[in-house]
Amino acid sequence: MEVREPTYLFSKEVDDLIQETIECVRQKHTLDKNLHIVWTWSNKMTRTAGYAWKNKRKVRFSADLFKRDKVSGRRNTIVHEICHILSWEVYGNKIKPHGNEWKYLMRLCGEEPLRTHNIKVKPKHPRYPTYCMCPKPHMLVKQMINRMKRGTAYTCTTCKEVLTLHKDFYI
Ligand SMILES: [Zn+2]
Ligand SMILES: [Zn+2]
Predict the structure, then answer these.
(1) β 58-62/50-53 pair status
(2) How far is CA 30 from CA 24, 95, 143, in A?
(3) Distance (Å, rounded) from C-alpha 13 to C-alpha 158?
(4) Burial of 164 (C-beta count, 10 Å sphere; 0-12/13-18/19+)
(5) Lowest model confidence (mean pLDDT) among 7-16, 72-81, 83-92
(6) What is the distance in A from the centroid of ligand 1 to the CA of 146?
(7) Contact assessment for residue 75 and residue 58, using Cβ atoms and an 8 Å cutoff
(8) Ligand number with the minimum distance to the CA of 138
(9) Cα 148 to ligand 1 centre (Å)
(10) Cα torsion at 38, 44, 48, 50 (round to 10°)?
(11) Given a cut of 90, is residue 69 above it in pLDDT?
(12) Nearest bound ligand to the CA of residue 134
């Protein structure tokens, strides 16, 4: 699902920076006069901040990661993806995605050519495994794990056994 609404505050930031990046590269290289890069938000991307399609002049950004990033990180992500598109425009699509051509364009636009974004990707509610007679562990939130450590017994709704924190308890 592609939506623009939740991150509308950043939409202008993205629009402006895409234009700025195109103009920056255009000063040194010939680009198609009608070059237009289409972009969308993605709600599905939770670990990748951005994605660029080869041959499509299209990029996508993670709404979730944008909300959690700083302006400098968002800037790096936007320029990163736009430089993919522009490196293919300038050098053709046989180049390596994070090769010298892309790195050069990143630096030309004043950004560090980092392969991955620096957003600390922490799951909002990390889960930990608990075991019963079922083949797969059940993943519980930290609060429940702490209660188990203090003696609360949780029962598996499938096998009806009490969940344990130790994997080999039942083996
Ligand atoms: Zn990349
Ligand atoms: Zn079970």
Answers:
(1) antiparallel
(2) 11, 18, 57
(3) 49
(4) middle
(5) 7-16
(6) 40
(7) no
(8) 2
(9) 43
(10) 10
(11) no
(12) 2
Cα 128 to ligand 2 centroid, rounded to whole Å: 15
- Tracing tokens 């993943």 back to the chain, one arrives at 139
pLDDT at residue 23 tops 90: yes
Question: Relative to the alpha carbon of 158, which ligand is closest?
Answer: 2
Both structure tokens of 61: 């950004």
Domains of the chain and any CATH numbers: 5-108 (3.30.2010.10), 127-169 (no CATH)
Q: How far apart are CA 155 and CA 162, in angstroms?
A: 4
82 C-alpha to center of ligand 1: Å? 9
Q: Could you identify the residue written with the tokens 């080999």? A: 168
Residue range 143-159: average pLDDT?
A: 93
